[in-house]
């Protein structure tokens, strides 16, 4: 059987490629389970200091594989709440809580849960030919995989509502100008830029970045006082890491720091 995801080890980071190109890398159960296992391995491997997520072929990910959802006349509908609870929501939580930076290279169309999977990553680069499509309204569903959380926070209410309710593709360049993603790059530069970012993260103070992820994730539901308290607590933790000591030493010695990362 073809592998539904490909995992490649690089110096200090891993690249995970969604690999069902004939179906635009849409999710079936095998792909969910394979991705979950790969992310768990990455979390457990202290030598891994960044993740690069991308798709094989011309698409990034078209969300749920709809050929698994075709219902015969009069058939009992599937319990989509169960599939969200079992697969999509845990995937988003897993990505958001990975204690290392997650770079997403959106190589082509990102639709449905595939679009929201990209938005759950820390830094999103997209090829100029790629687009983001909240496809759910086309089939009578609600944006899932964190879509209704991420969209208004990233692009504001007006654009979030139009994306969710009109289900029109948003080209990568527009996505960048709206602040939906970090950067739109020429197609032939996408993977080079994504690898360069991961190589940079592979030498970064990973624990400090993991704490930064936690602070940013909490900020959208906190008031200023709670957030200031959280910053105090996380800074206390960051200040105890060997990478902080190394960063200060390197600064005063006017040399490049050599960070240990997660170890
Ligand atoms: O179900 C649950 O558990 C709940 C969770 C839901 C999460 C969701 O993600 S729901 C939303 C599901 N996704 C969609 O509705 C998107 C469906 N796809 C599209 O609308 C279009 O394919 C795209 C706009 C993404 C791209 O269009 P285009 O014209 O570039 O490509 P295409 O020709 O439509 O697709 C190429 C092939 O991929 C095609 O197969 P074929 O005809 O060459 O054999 C197409 O059927 C297949 N494909 C694309 N998306 C899916 C898919 N096959 C199964 N499921 C898909 N989602």
Secondary structure: number of strands? 10
Which cofactor or ligand species appear? ligand T3D
Gross CATH architecture of the largest domain: Alpha-Beta Complex
Shape: globular
The proportion of residues forming helix, as a percent range, comes to 40-55%
CATH homologous superfamily grouping of the largest domain: 2-enoyl-CoA Hydratase, Chain A, domain 1
Average pLDDT: 97
> Can you summarize the main beta sheet?
6 strands, mixed
CATH topology of the largest domain: 2-enoyl-CoA Hydratase, Chain A, domain 1
What is the number of domains?
Answer: 2
The number of helices is 10
In whole angstroms, the N-to-C terminal distance is 36 Å
Strand order in the largest sheet: 1-2-3-5-7-10
Question: Characteristics of this structure?
Answer:
four-stranded mixed β-sheet; globular; six-stranded mixed β-sheet; Lyase 2-enoyl-coa Hydratase, Chain  A, domain 2; alpha/beta; 2-enoyl-CoA Hydratase, Chain A, domain 1; 10 helices; 263 residues; binds ligand T3D; 2 domains
Report on this model:
This protein has 263 residues and is of the alpha/beta class. It folds into two domains: 5-201, 2-enoyl-CoA Hydratase, Chain A, domain 1; 206-253, Lyase 2-enoyl-coa Hydratase, Chain  A, domain 2, CATH 1.10.12. Helices cover 46% and strands 16% of the residues. The protein has ten helices and ten strands. It has helices at residues 29-44, 80-97, 113-119, 147-155, 157-166, 172-178, 190-201, 206-219, 224-239, 242-252; strands at residues 5-10, 13-18, 51-55, 59-61, 102-106, 109-111, 123-127, 131-133, 170-171, 183-185. Helix 1 links the parallel strand 2 and strand 3 (51-55). The longest helix is centred in the middle third of the chain and has 18 residues, at 80-97. It is globular. The site of ligand T3D has 25 residues, from helix 2 and strand 6.
